[in-house]
Write a sequence for this structure.
């Protein structure tokens, strides 16, 4: 267990979150850190800071449509925008926390598989059906996972995680915290890595 | 005259714009490009995309207060927040375009001197008095520059530049365009440099 600990906050509907999910474990390995994956829901934050889904914003939306695929190509990652976007990521996040309570490595696998389904294959991950299908492909039990998505304890866990992210001040996806130091965006992953390596500046 | 041409859009009230202004000419030299400096006014854009000055935004504001000085330290640049922030950058932008029509190298010097006064020394650059003082320190004529700040032709030039930036889709500061390819933010200057070097990807 490393004493270097990165909190990785992301929303399953965030394309930049997908890119970060593909890159963060490599970064962590290079600096000898461990990553805690923390899906949350951006919707509530967007209301609080008075913004809206990225692609809907004038000028910023068209820029994102250029920048996200460009970042993906830069890193050699597949990328497509899902047909329906933005989308609800509640079921995906609940599935993550249910698995995470049993097996955190499996939960990371599930997160990456969900993200790839959405942003590499362009398929929906909003419906419980889609989320369960991805889980089953990783060996999870279909009936148990289906039940978990409506389990009050799982719902409550996600609510608490969303509130915890809000208290930390997480306002975007991806968002990283290392030893109290916040880094927002795929762009800032290079700073995060240097910060850990150099011990700050 | 290089055939590699970077348009550098910035608002004189933007702290990230200040950092970019300190870094862009070094970048351009490394890749053999020339930079056209294009001050504009973010206010109108903020209304259009429904946002507000950075530091006033819940959560995003506190993050910026951490990130901007951290970026400055990373690059070895002085940085302070001016006492009055945000501030109007109309006079600074007008002065820039008046000088630029005569001497583009001098206009860049003026831009850097104005930015340093605001974000390295923390002094105001909103009043005509302050802007003229900076100009005079660079050898500009006090009476001519004072008159230029109210010259209808100079006012009109700035209006046209703001409109041109809007048409290009510039929604933040700094914002760069190279051969039609947009790059937003200090964070993205590393991508801009790689893009020019590699000829895209």
């Amino acid at each position: 267990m490393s004493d270097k600990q990165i909190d990785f906050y992301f929303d399953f509907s965030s394309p930049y979150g997908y890119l970060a999910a593909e890159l963060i474990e490599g970064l962590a390995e290079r600096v000898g850190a461990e990553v805690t994956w923390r899906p949350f829901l951006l919707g509530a934050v967007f209301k609080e800071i008075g913004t809206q889904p990225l692609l809907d914003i004038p000028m910023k939306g068209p820029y994102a449509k250029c920048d996200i695929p460009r970042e993906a190509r830069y890193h050699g990652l597949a990328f497509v925008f899902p047909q329906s976007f933005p989308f609800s990521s509640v079921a995906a996040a609940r599935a993550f926390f249910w698995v995470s309570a049993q097996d955190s490595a499996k939960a990371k696998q599930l997160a990456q598989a969900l993200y790839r389904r959405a942003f590499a294959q362009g398929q929906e991950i909003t419906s419980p059906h889609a989320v369960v299908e991805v889980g089953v492909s990783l060996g999870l039990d279909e009936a148990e996972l289906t039940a978990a998505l409506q389990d009050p304890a799982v719902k409550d866990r996600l609510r608490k995680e969303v509130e915890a992210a809000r208290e930390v001040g997480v306002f975007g996806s991806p968002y990283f915290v290392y030893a109290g130091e916040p880094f927002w965006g795929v762009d800032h992953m290079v700073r995060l890595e240097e910060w850990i390596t150099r011990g700050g500046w």
